[in-house]
């Protein structure tokens, strides 16, 4: 059976092979402008798409695209152009970058096996992107421009590790992203109550991995899901519940497929 490196590990290898680590990349560095950051994020995803195995199965890609599109349509203003990539990687992971790239792993789909749970995590990633959390990280790190995208840059973007720059989002950023994601889920017609269950499922996967019976979710490195966070997710804002109910009562729930067994099952 063929095995694949987790996305983060593979990206590290990529950086090492390319000789683009922090200590060896001699290109001039600068704090990237917003446009440069978007371009670099797109190049980083291109790099991953060129080097990592992609899940090409049409039905699964349509399912993921449907969930992502429903959330994107619920964003305020012009949603812009988004690209969605599913990587063959058993470690649950996801990202959403400035410029509009969403990436996630087959391992995430394995753990979050219906549209509401999947929407919870994609909404969380979009919420970080919309809040400028990744841009804020980038603003603290002068980075080299151009390709190949450096290992350090991948780390700042949260799609690869680097020499000390892969830091988790802080508790305030996580709390804000969670609240934004719950609201976004409700507006899109996904059940916001699924968010707590989604992140609990990822925590459970980590426990399974620790016991030797699962794959450590890389996603929890960037997005720690401690007890306080899970408790807060259980308190869905009334507006999110109302928005979801409005969509549900009008039969405007997304119907993305997947393995959703029933209207209220998550
Ligand atoms: Zn987060």
UniProtKB/TrEMBL annotation:
Keywords: Hydrolase, Metal-binding, Metalloprotease, Protease, Signal, Zinc. GO terms for cellular component: membrane. Its cofactor is Zn(2+). One of its GO terms (molecular function) is metal ion binding. Binds 1 zinc ion per subunit. Residues 1-18 form the signal peptide. Pfam families: Peptidase_M48 (PF01435). GO terms for biological process: proteolysis involved in protein catabolic process. The keyword Zinc applies. Residues 61-234 form the Peptidase M48 domain. The keyword Lyase does not apply. Belongs to the peptidase M48 family. This is Peptidase M48-like protein.
């Amino acid at each position: 059976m063929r095995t694949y490196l987790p996305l983060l590990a593979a990206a590290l290898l990529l950086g090492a092979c390319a000789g683009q680590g922090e200590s060896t990349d001699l290109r001039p560095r600068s704090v990237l402008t917003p446009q440069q950051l978007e371009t670099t994020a797109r190049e980083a995803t291109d790099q991953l798409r060129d080097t990592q195995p992609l899940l090409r199965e049409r039905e699964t890609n349509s399912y993921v695209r449907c969930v992502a599109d429903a959330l994107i349509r619920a964003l305020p203003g012009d949603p812009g152009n988004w690209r969605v990539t599913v990587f063959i990687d058993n470690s649950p992971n996801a990202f959403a970058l400035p410029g509009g790239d969403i990436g996630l792993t087959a391992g995430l789909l394995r753990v979050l096996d219906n549209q509401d749970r999947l929407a919870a995590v994609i909404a969380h990633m979009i919420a970080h992107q919309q809040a400028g959390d990744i841009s804020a990280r980038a603003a603290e790190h002068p980075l080299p421009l151009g390709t190949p995208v450096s290992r350090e840059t991948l780390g700042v973007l949260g799609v690869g590790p680097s020499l000390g720059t892969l830091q988790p989002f802080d508790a305030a950023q996580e709390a804000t992203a969670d609240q934004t994601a719950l609201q976004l889920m409700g507006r899109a017609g996904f059940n916001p109550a699924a968010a707590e269950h989604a992140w609990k499922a990822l925590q459970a996967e980590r426990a399974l991995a620790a016991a030797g019976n699962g794959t450590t979710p890389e996603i929890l490195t960037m997005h720690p899901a401690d007890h306080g966070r899970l408790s807060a997710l259980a308190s869905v804002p009334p507006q999110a519940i109302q928005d979801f109910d409005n969509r549900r009562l009008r039969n405007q729930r997304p119907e993305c497929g997947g393995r959703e067994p029933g209207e209220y099952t998550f």
